[in-house]
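Forum: Protein Structure Q&A
Topic: Joint prediction for protein chains with partners

I've read a bunch of threads here and the consensus seems to be that you should model interacting components together rather than docking separate models afterwards. I'd like to see that in practice. Below is the full input, 330 residues plus whatever partners are listed. Could one of the regulars post the assembled result?
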Amino acid sequence: MSISFNAIEVFEIAERIERNSVKFYRRAAEALSDNDLCRILLSLAEFEREHEETFANMRKQISHKEWDLITFDPENEMSLYLRTIADSHIFDPKKDPAEHLKEETAEDILKFAIKSEKDSIIFYLGLKNFVPARAGKDKVDEIIKEEMEHIAELNLRTSALKYLKRISI
Amino acid sequence: MVMPFNADEVFEMAEQIERNGAKFYRAAAKKFPEVRKMLSDLAAMEDEHEKTFAAMRAELSGTELEPLVFDPDGQAQMYLRVMADEHVFNIKADPLEQLAGQETPGDILKIAIGLEKDSIAFYVGLKEAVSRKAGKDKVEAIIKEEIGHIATLSQKLDTLK
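Posted by a regular:
Agreed with the consensus. Here's the joint model:
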């Protein structure tokens, strides 16, 4: 089995991760009755949709000639890393992300979302190595930072839910 | 308002992650001769990482992390809090407690990959929280080595299949 990825495949996986996230956040927003939380999840879905667009544009910008140059990975280290992270991403690409929403509480959904954002961040760390500066390595850094902000936001909401639960007892 | 970490706390957590990692690799190496050499090498690298973080902590001890970076909304701080939250990722817990005793070498390698993933996720936040002067490059170098560990573990896992 070939273990090396080419850059096109790496970007396609990133786009798929983002598509799954959009789908997950939108479905989660539909499933929850807390309007404030729904608004936040829909805004996160919008961010992820923009990230997908950014990755797709970056993929299109890089010429075929450049793919070989930027995928210099003689020991296959980066390919192995990316494959492992992609395979263990909480969003199994073969499954509908909305499957994770069956009977989950708002807290479960937020916890799941945090794990998914973390998996995305560590995938993008590897993806960065496949991006020439001209094609926007700094854009990947920005996306990583935005995912970190999402984790912070999701955590704030989790704390708020826990607090509300505590005071309602 | 999230209470900011100080440098002591955050580097202590990084050291703890590395100590746990080394402990896990050594215990697993004793148990599985077929992966002993690789796991012992990984343990030795985690020892080195621990020393690096300890040295960084010694230099920064007592300094608030916050003034070292431009993090006006405390996002990097909050991210680190989540990564350190035992209810979410449990990076501070002793990984040996996760072992039931019936694991195969393949199971051990999968657990190790999970631990490395969580370490990387924490160090990404740590990198954001420290300035270049305070050793951002060293954190970056450790992240690269942990990426290498995942590649090594994954390659070995393939050979066991």
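Chain A has a mean pLDDT of 84.
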